[in-house]
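Limitations
The structure tokens in this dataset are predictions for the assembled complex, not deposited experimental models. Users should treat interface geometry with appropriate caution, especially where small molecules or nucleic acid strands are included. An illustrative entry is reproduced here so readers can see what is and is not provided.
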Amino acid sequence: MIDKSVFSFTRYGVTLEPLKEGQAEMVRHWRNTPRIRELMLDTDIITEEQQRSWFQKVWNDPKQIYFLIYFKAQPIGVASLVNIDTDQATAEPGMYIYDEKYQGNILPFSAAFALNDIAFEVLKLTCLHGKIFESNKASLRFHSACGYQETGIVDTLRTLHLRQENYLPARQKLTRFMRF
Amino acid sequence: MSNQQKLLDTFAQSLAIPSTSITDTLTYNTIPEWDSTAHMILVAELEDAFDVMLDTDDIIDMSSFAKAKEILTKYDVNF
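Predicted assembly:
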């Protein structure tokens, strides 16, 4: 169980902290940016009011956590665990890097690994489930490099899962470059 | 083989693109082949090819072919 008001997790050069109310509007602007929105399953523009009610729902729901990703004390993106099921020990992760300077290099891996470590080590989950548009080849390659295994296709979405035994060797290959 | 040619070959192999399409203006996120996964393959190949160990800040800053040359120069690789 994570106390969203105080939790902070620093590893691989990045820090993940639960999104706070005062940051929700900044994240709404990020999320509504076309280059971010087009990556989402729901591509609708989000209004200020929708964001406020979304935040209240998320903040009070133990089954979902949204994190701000910080690099060098600056927020650069959002990571999330939703549909956290403590009985099945599963969740669905999500992540985007808003700052374009950090999108195509090592930091997406840093953030994904920190999120996975929260899931496996802090929350004691055993399997993460994901869905990725079949057309999003970069994301498919990224998840494969993180140890995800494909489990099927539903319409235009590939389904994947990540188990800790597949994650740890994949992480080891890349953390040798994280010399922070 | 010159370091310029070695760098060209490493980029071509890591990003799976023809070396003829590589110029100083080649920048990540401008071609689909240069995504975060390819970036890490590129870093590994550069470290092997030039026998260097890059600082993480340099890995992050390596955003173009020209920038790669500039960074490698800091590690005593001459072009």
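Some entries come with short summary sentences. For this one: Chain B has a mean pLDDT of 94.
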